[in-house]
């Protein structure tokens, strides 16, 4: 097994080294007068399967890049963690062997703590409000913290909000979560929110969640509706509280040197193509909320709401704990709570 892992790692490294890494081709193609006419084939990596909204957004980004550059800027997309974990991907983006990534804000916050601000619970009325907040000054300043890691943070992409799924307990209020063992992405702000209710958290990676809940190793999970359907969690969890208590952004990022090596016109094409992809993701995903809830209910899950007011003390606890840890988190919280 160990041998196989070493062989796979060597093959992956060879693949990344031998294929055109930062994407610039030496041929000057049909570029227009305002660009330098360079052609690129970029690589983009992310963790979700092709059925997830982030992958669809990546495809939209690819399509827009090609359209807006008359085919000069091409994109190869590597979904489903094909290039490794998010830690591996971000390292590859930093080194320039991969150009672009859609990396969860949860993982990004482990490298650049102010991204934790996005996990302020019940900060947004709906997905559109979060989508709008991404253009606020604090959100932009948070993206800029990636600069010192050799990465340019470009934008945020949203794929639904977080909900709570429970194996066999009909949780109707936060106090019902006391003593439950729940899978929560290994991100301190997300886990702290759950722990404040008296639940304990397990930071299992996505592929281990189905069997963990099936075998009773965990009593439930924090998830998004999209992934709940893709991974058929309705087969192993009876209760779905559509709390929409946190947003779940992916951070769109690019190797800084690669991006700064592009002409201003091409940088604009990249930014506008991403914006089109982010708009597409949020519009499409917002329109699917009712359909997703119905699909889970049709598959036997009890789908219900919990009054957000019941979480008020836990929201206050979060803000009190996380605001003082970082001036940017405080600025973001002040901006979303006003
Ligand atoms: C998760 O780890 O919960 C997750 C990751 C990517 C997309 C959806 C959910």
Blueprint (SSEs and pairs):
Elements: H1 2-18, E1 24-28, E2 38-46, H2 53-68, E3 73-78, H3 86-95, E4 100-104, H4 105-111, H5 127-133, H6 137-144, E5 151-166, E6 181-183, H7 188-195, E7 200-202, H8 206-214, E8 220-224, H9 225-230, E9 239-241, E10 247-255, H10 256-260, H11 264-287, H12 289-298, E11 302-304, H13 312-322, H14 327-337
Parallel strand pairs: 2-3, 2-4, 6-7, 6-8, 9-11
Antiparallel strand pairs: 1-2, 4-10, 5-8, 5-9, 5-10
The structure holds benzoic acid.
Model description:
This is TRAP transporter substrate-binding protein. Keywords: Signal. Residues 16-21 and 26-33 have low confidence and may be disordered. The chain starts with a helix and ends with a helix. Strands 1, 2, 3, 4, 5, 6, 7, 8, 9, 10 and 11 form an eleven-stranded mixed beta sheet that branches. It is of the alpha/beta class and 338 residues long. Helix content is 44%, strand content 20%. It contains 14 helices and eleven strands. Benzoic acid binds next to β8.
């Amino acid at each position: 097994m160990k041998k196989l892992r070493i062989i796979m790692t060597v093959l992956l490294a060879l693949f990344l080294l031998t294929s055109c890494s930062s994407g610039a081709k030496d041929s000057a193609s049909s570029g227009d007068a305002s660009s330098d006419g360079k052609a690129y084939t970029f690589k983009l990596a992310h963790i979700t399967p092709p059925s997830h909204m982030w992958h669809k957004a990546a495809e939209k980004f690819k399509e827009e890049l090609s359209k807006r550059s008359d085919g000069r800027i091409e994109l190869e997309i590597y979904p489903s963690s094909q290039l490794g974990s998010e830690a591996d991907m971000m390292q590859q983006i930093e080194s320039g062997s991969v150009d672009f990534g859609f990396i969860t804000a949860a993982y990004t916050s482990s490298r650049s703590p102010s991204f934790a601000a996005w996990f302020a619970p019940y900060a947004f009325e709906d997905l559109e409000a979060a989508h709008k907040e991404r253009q606020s000054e604090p959100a932009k300043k948070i993206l800029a913290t990636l600069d010192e890691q050799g990465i340019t943070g470009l934008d945020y992409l949203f794929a639904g909000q977080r909900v709570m799924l429970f194996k066999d307990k009909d949780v109707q209020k936060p106090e019902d979560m006391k003593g439950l063992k729940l899978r929560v992405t290994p991100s301190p702000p997300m886990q702290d929110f759950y722990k404040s209710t008296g639940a304990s958290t397990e930071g299992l990676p996505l592929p281990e969640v189905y069997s963990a809940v099936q075998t009773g190793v965990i009593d439930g999970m924090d998830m998004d509706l999209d992934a709940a359907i893709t991974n058929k969690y309705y087969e192993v969890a009876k209760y779905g509280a559509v709390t929409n208590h946190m947003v779940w952004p992916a951070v769109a990022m690019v190797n800084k040197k690669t991006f700064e090596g592009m002409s201003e016109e091409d940088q604009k094409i990249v930014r506008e193509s991403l914006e089109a992809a982010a708009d597409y993701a949020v519009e499409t995903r917002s329109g699917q909320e009712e359909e997703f809830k119905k699909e889970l209910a049709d598959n036997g899950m009890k789908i219900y709401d919990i009054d957000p007011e019941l979480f008020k003390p836990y929201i206050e606890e979060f803000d009190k704990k996380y605001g003082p840890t970082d001036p940017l988190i405080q600025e973001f919280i002040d901006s979303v709570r006003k």
